[in-house]
Amino acid sequence: MSAYLITNVSVVGGAPTDLLIRDGVVAGTGTGLAAPDATAVDGTGLVALPGLVDLHTHLREPGREDAETVESGSRAAALGGYTAVCAMANTSPVADTAGVVEQVWRLGREAGLVDVQPIGAVTVGLAGEHLAELGAMADSAARVRIFSDDGHCVADPRLMRRALEYVKAFDGIIAQHAEEPRLTEGAQMHEGEVSTRLGLTGWPAVAEEAIIARDVLLAEHVGSRLHICHVSTAGSVEVLRQAKARGVRVTAEVTPHHLLLTDEKAATYDPVYKVNPPLRTDSDIAALRAALAEGVIDVIATDHAPHAVEDKECEWAYARPGMLGLETALSIALDVLGPQWDLIAERMSRAPARIAGLADHGHDPAPGVPANLTLVDPAVRRTIEPAELASRSRNTPYARMTLPGRIVATFLRGEPTVLDGKAVK
Ligand SMILES: NC(=O)N[C@@H](CC(=O)O)C(=O)O
Ligand SMILES: [Zn+2]
Ligand SMILES: [Zn+2]
């Protein structure tokens, strides 16, 4: 195994130091380290963060390899500073058996760019009728701990209760896509002033809030762990705040796009802005940012949702919802939070690693910890060019925007996956 000596780097915003990486772990820190056999990496001006961990990634393999593969999505993740991603189950076939989750897990290992941790479906085929084989997925080589029908809500309260009961035995989590389907039939965008003006059917905030309120009560009743995907409204934050104050075992994530973009974007009729849950309002953004600072929202998760051109560059009503996220998330976080490195490390690495139970991830670089880390240059501003992204898809809402921060290098267990801002393989 190789050795790397990163010199003069700020670890999570601290005073510059050196970091020696050897045999897959951080072998030493301190100023003036010497290691003649190590490859030198000049860390001057750079910030070292624990490798980012994404709780919510769509990799599209198996089934839509034209939009993304485990390998292309892993490369996008590494370039975004990630060392682990949790792959959502809404593939084709759905990841609802031990066989499919093991396939995704193996493809992740073969790509070798990030740790790919499969999420299993809650219900067979995401159909919301019968529980999938949760135990077999948990016992499989993929060791699934998070289950989600993401893309769909587990709308049936009895099924949701049974799923929560089932995963309690192995401290698993149900990650809910909170959307009361009866309240969002035909919905195209956030229900509010802009949808009224544009004449598009609205997706009301209460469709999300009602499910979160129900599910925190179910989780409290059962004593199980619940995670809420892509929280998007101020009302959801209030429900979560109350639940957490009561000690309910609930965690929550917000996406970069819900922290930055509003429903006004729909007025462009550019389907790149169509997403579930929809972009909301300025006051929702303010509440989400405050909740993130406070810890009512635990995690920034990308909901990286690649879509092929034919599924996205069409009329708004026919376009699939979802947008890319992995290669821009850290920049959006920097833009929204500023250089609050400890908060960024907490919300984008430590907390998601803890929630997903990824023991090798989410550790600040310190002697003895697995060398899963990323180096950020906060001084660089870069313009997002969709054609330059590593993702197979192009549906970024940040095209031609200039954003702060650039990932210079990413290390997975001591080996670089990104160096000089370029993927190593
Ligand atoms: N977020 C989206 O708009 N789309 C996701 C599904 C989901 O996260 O609900 C997708 O799979 O494309
Ligand atoms: Zn979802
Ligand atoms: Zn999703």
Largest sheet: 9 strands, mixed
Q: Would you report the number of β strands?
A: 19
Strand share of the residues?
A: 15-25%
Helix content: 25-40%
Distance between the termini: 17 Å
Principal-axes shape call: globular
Q: What small molecules does this complex bind?
A: N-carbamoyl-L-aspartate, zinc ion
Describe the structure.
The longest helix is centred in the middle third of the chain and has 18 residues, at 205-222. The chain has helices at 70-79, 98-111, 134-139, 157-168, 193-198, 205-222, 234-245, 256-260, 282-294, 309-312, 329-337, 341-356, and strands at 3-11, 16-22, 25-30, 39-42, 47-50, 52-57, 82-87, 115-118, 146-147, 173-176, 189-190, 202-203, 225-228, 250-254, 299-300, 373-383, 402-412, 415-419, 422-423. Strands 1, 2, 3, 4, 5, 16, 17, 18 and 19 form a 9-stranded mixed beta sheet that branches. It has a 5-stranded parallel beta sheet with strand order 9-10-13-14-15. Strands 6-7-8 form a 3-stranded parallel beta sheet. Strand 7 (82-87), helix 2 (98-111) and strand 8 form a beta-alpha-beta unit. By secondary structure, the chain is an alpha/beta fold. The relative contact order is 0.16. The mean pLDDT is 98. It is built from 12 helices and 19 strands. Helix 1 crosses helix 2 (98-111), helix 4 (157-168) crosses helix 6 (205-222) and helix 6 runs parallel beside helix 7. The protein has 2 domains: 3-47 and 367-423, Urease, subunit C, domain 1 (Roll); 52-356, Metal-dependent hydrolases (TIM Barrel, Alpha-Beta Barrel). One zinc ion binds at residues 150-151, 177, 229-230, 276.
